[in-house]
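Hey, quick one: can you model this chain's 3D structure?
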Amino acid sequence: MENCVFCRIVEGAEPASIVYADEIVIAFMDIQPVNPGHVLVIPRKHASGLSDLDEETGAHMFRIAMRIAAALRASGVKCEGINLFLADGKAASQDIFHVHLHVIPRFRGDGFHVKAGPNYGVRPSREELDKIAERIRLAMT
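Sure thing. Here's the predicted structure for all 141 residues.
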């Protein structure tokens, strides 16, 4: 994908501060970090969204993110907690259409937060939850 900045990073055509690399994924520092130590984990093979990504690669991305999270805590980078964040699709605020998992070190007072919508906190009935669960279960087969 010649227009994909992450594919260009994988190819070595764009600079990146590499944290980890293997034959499946590459992890590097985010150039617009939420906090110092913010790392992105991406598959080497281009996948625009989660539906384009094979399950084993997705699982490997998560395993590497877990290792990076542990390393962040041990590194001396200010880190009292970790957020893992993956935006899938424009409505979810994905801005680069190459799957990427954010590993974000967090600390009290860092100012970062995820804002919930106006219906957050309104609990649906069990019947409604069961109906939605059934639709999702059927779509998984």
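One thing worth noting: Residues 129 and 135 are 10 Å apart (CA to CA).
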